[in-house]
Write a structure and sequence with these properties.
The structure holds two protein chains of two kinds.
Chain A: H1 6-18, H2 23-35, H3 37-51, H4 64-74, H5 78-91, H6 98-111, H7 114-121, E1 129-136, E2 141-148, E3 153-158, E4 168-176, E5 182-187, E6 191-196, H8 201-205, E7 208-217, E8 231-238
Antiparallel strand pairs in A: 1-2, 1-8, 2-3, 3-6, 4-5, 4-7, 7-8
Helix pairs in contact in A: 1-3, 2-3
Chain B: H1 4-15, H2 19-41, H3 44-61, H4 72-90, H5 103-110, H6 116-126, H7 130-133, H8 138-150, H9 154-161, H10 165-185
Classes of the chains: A alpha+beta, B mainly alpha.
């Protein structure tokens, strides 16, 4: 069945935009959206039409703690945030010129790397994550992959150096339960790396059962693995 | 609400990770977005969680926002609705189920003006397509309203309205076809 057939695509797009598309069909369509950006246009048309229906929904002011929590999640831990706000209130409006403010801002931003703060504030419990331990055909642990549930990066740690011939690359693939594998990214032959994801881990890995590694020519087709999986493992939810 | 072009300018700055612009975007849109989430989730707490999650996505994904595809408000509503619908269907909110009924949920049920069909009527009037949409019968309108405002799927709509599944699907489809036609006739998102 061709999902990209215009009539069928329009039917799926409007059901997706409205929300009546559900379950596995909804996840499959979301994957299609990522893989075929053209489909996003069709969906966007429907979202724009349906947006008209939102105009009469009465506004409800969120409690201030929603914004505070948002700031904490994105920018800072609670203690540091108050110091920053304090400094900003004291200095920014009157005393500091643009240059000094810029320097201060850069320093604070550098200090407030969200991932550091996440480590600090959530040190006691492992964060909700998707985790995969990939084992080679010979049974050796080869790669550890982890991604925070709502994060947009995946961290890989190569446990056993991968023998990557010149002109080739090692690629990490996700294997959904009910669909074709999709490319997560290229992994280094050794050491660790953080790879960007095209969407949140939750969206991408929700239906993924396994992860697999291939060696293939650099610049190969990102839509399908070109070689056999030399290492693979379950993709599990850590929560 | 801020004028659409202002939101567009804010989005452009948010894409560059301008925090002040992000706060203005939040202040300008969060109340409307919470309203949308609340209609679907019927719980202030769950709706606020979804709202916060949606703005985390907006901050991280602003670079991917394309003004030629959607207005900022449509883009944000879409994030909020999708998250609300996912939350509703995952049953995630039920982990906190207590005996106490939430005031907000009661309010929603008690006020007929917050019922889906009233929201639909009011929105259609605002968009000046109420006359065109009047060609739909009451059931077709209600089915569309339940799907959009409450995030219900066809089987739930069928059950609620006491109709066979195929009939409920046809009502929704007819409602969407008509919406497209009426907006197209007015030159909106045709």
């Amino acid at each position: 069945m061709n999902l990209l057939q215009p009539e069928r695509l329009d039917r799926l797009a409007r059901e997706y935009a409205l929300g009546t598309l559900h379950g596995a069909a909804r996840r499959r369509f979301e994957r299609l959206l990522r893989e075929a950006p053209l489909t996003m246009r069709v969906v966007a048309h429907w979202q724009q039409r349906l947006g008209v229906l939102a105009s009469s929904v009465p506004a409800v002011q969120p409690r201030e703690l929603v914004w505070q929590g948002l700031q904490q999640r994105l920018f800072a831990g609670p203690r540091r945030a108050s110091v920053w706000q304090h400094l900003q209130g004291l200095l920014a409006p009157r005393v500091l010129g643009g240059v000094l403010a810029g320097v201060l801002m850069a320093a604070v931003v550098l200090r407030l790397q969200p991932q550091w703060l996440d480590l600090e504030t959530r040190a006691e419990a492992l964060p909700q994550s998707y985790v995969g331990l990939l084992v080679s055909d010979s049974g050796q642990a080869t790669l550890l992959a982890s991604s925070r549930r709502h994060g947009r990066t995946i961290t890989v740690k190569v446990l056993q150096p991968i023998d990557v011939p010149p002109g080739q690359v090692a690629r990490l693939w996700a294997l959904p339960r009910d669909g074709a594998p999709f490319l997560v990214g290229e992994v280094p032959a050794k050491g660790s790396a953080t790879l960007p994801l095209t969407d949140s881990a939750e969206k991408l890995f929700f239906t993924v059962a396994r992860l697999g590694l291939t060696i293939e020519p650099a610049g190969g087709d990102p839509r399908a693995p070109a070689g056999p999986f030399f290492a693979s493992g379950h993709c599990v939810k850590l929560w | 609400m801020t004028a659409p072009d202002d939101l567009g300018a804010l989005m452009a700055r948010v894409a560059l990770h301008d925090r002040a612009a992000f706060e203005r975007l939040y202040r300008a849109t969060s109340a409307h977005l919470l309203g949308v989430a609340l209609r679907i989730l019927n719980s202030r707490e769950r709706a606020e969680e979804v709202l916060q999650e949606a703005f985390v996505n907006a901050w991280n994904g602003a670079r991917g926002y394309n003004p030629s595809v959607a207005t900022p408000m449509t883009w944000l509503i879409n994030i909020v609705r999708n998250k609300s619908i996912d939350t509703l269907r995952s049953g995630a909110g039920e982990r906190r189920t207590t005996g106490a009924l939430e005031d907000e949920a009661l309010e929603v049920r008690a006020d007929p003006h917050l019922e889906p069909q009233h929201l639909l009527d009011a929105s259609l009037q605002r968009a000046h397509i109420d006359a065109c949409m009047a060609e739909l019968n009451a059931q077709q309108r209600q089915a569309l309203a339940l799907a959009y405002y409450k995030g219900l799927v066809h089987s739930e709509i069928a059950q609620l309205m006491g109709a066979p599944l195929g009939t409920a699907k046809a009502w929704v489809r007819r409602g969407l076809d008509k919406l497209k036609e009426c907006l197209g006739a007015r030159g909106v998102a045709g």
